[in-house]
Amino acid sequence: MTKKFLFSALIMLSLGAVISFPFIGEVPFSLDMLFKESVEQTIFFNIRIPRVLGAYITGAILALAGMLFQSMFRNDLATPYTLGISSGAALGAVMAIKFFATVQFLYYPAIQVFSFAMALTTVAVLHLLTFSRKRSSTHFLLLAGIAINFTCTGAILFIQYIASGSESSRMVRWMMGSLDFIGYSPVLKLIPALILLLVTALYFHRDLDLLSIDSDIAHSRGVNIKFTEKTLFFAVSLAVAITVANTGPIGFVGMIAPHVGRKLIGRGHISLIPASLMLGGLILLVSDTFARTVISPSEIPVGVITALLGGPFFIFILIKKSG
Predict the structure, then answer these.
(1) What is the CATH number of the domain that holds 144?
(2) Domain span holding position 275
(3) How buried is residue 294: exposed, middle or buried, by Cβ count under 10 Å (0-12/13-18/19+)?
(4) What's the Cα-to-Cα distance from 145 to each of 74, 78, 195, 217, 237, rounded to whole Å?
(5) Do the Cβ atoms of 239 and 62 come closer than 8 Å?
(6) How many domains, in total, are found in the chain?
(7) What does the DSSP 8-state code read for residue 293?
């Protein structure tokens, strides 16, 4: 199959999913219901459509973030989830639920503010451990991410231990990831993160082609490796911090989508970037639709679904790399 055909298929699948998936759910909708003022119309336009759009945009952001980290560090396992950024955001949310549940910062609830701040704090720690000390090897970065994951997990467990039953329940629910968007405000908050990643990725696509092969080759071809890596690192980290603050930690989309994109499209980033974006959006949209309908009227947190998909995929990559 040619790249043109695959791109056309991804575009059609994306458009078809975004248009049709709002009609899927516990309450069935028909076209004539959408033009009558009713409860169903409110549900469709204020809940179903924002959730579908939010799921697609979130998946696209996570996929682009994963693709950039994997290319930059030449490792299929390097994602914001495995580097501890999501764990830092989760720690911030848990702190907010326990100690600042009723605090509001302008128009933003404490959970979003603290999760965003702690995600950026994690980024700063990673930067101090790697780039500032010239230890930006893939292995060191992954080990640093694992250490941060363990540290944040320990702190989260301690706060959960001293929390009340209701607080602990909220913490667990948030850490499972959720796309319970009501209205378009949460969706609009995600769009700057998507634009930031897309523009950054397209601007550096030639540098990424070289970096994904070898840093020495990239340097010999005139790539300013330090500037490129720092710019990509902070752009990805900022976008992920914004996303996780609004949705909770949703793992493995950033690992699966770029890997599938490389198999379908190839490693050239001018093609891989839009392919990863669309694949990530489709993966999370399908996962979220399954999560909210499989045990309807209840729903499964979407992070559970992506973890069930991503765990075996993670093992598959490990086995393939060791082979």
Answers:
(1) 1.10.3470.10
(2) 3-322
(3) exposed
(4) 16, 9, 26, 27, 13
(5) no
(6) 1
(7) H
Q: Which two tokens stand for residue 15?
A: 């458009």
- Cα of 118 vs its chain's centroid, Å: 16
Along the 323 residues of the chain, how does pLDDT read in single tens digits? 577 888 889 999 999 999 999 888 777 776 777 777 777 788 888 989 999 999 999 999 999 999 998 888 887 777 777 778 888 988 999 999 998 877 777 677 888 888 889 988 988 888 787 765 555 566 777 788 888 888 999 999 999 999 988 888 888 888 888 888 888 998 999 999 999 999 999 999 999 988 888 777 877 888 888 888 889 888 998 898 889 888 988 888 988 899 899 888 888 899 999 999 999 999 999 999 999 888 877 888 898 888 888 878 778 777 776 55
C-alpha 154/C-alpha 136 separation (Å) is: 26
104-105 vs 108-109, strand pairing mode: antiparallel
How many degrees, rounded to 5, is the angle at CA 196 between CA 194 and CA 197? 65
| Residue found under tokens 């765990």 | 311
Can you tell me the distance from the alpha carbon of 146 to that of 83, in angstroms, rounded to the nearest whole number?
7
Element (H, E) at 168: helix 165-175
List the structure tokens of 136: 């930006």
Tokens found for residue 5: 């055909």
Rounded to two decimals, the pTM is: 0.90
Cβ atoms < 10 Å from Cβ of 23: 15
Please state, in angstroms and rounded to a whole number, the distance separating the CA atoms of residues 101 and 83: 27
Strand, helix or coil for residue 105: strand
User: Comparing C-alpha atoms, which of 180, 187, 181, 165 is closest to residue 300?
Assistant: 180
Buried b (16+ CB within 10 A) or exposed e, 167-186: bbebbeebbbbbbbbeeeeb
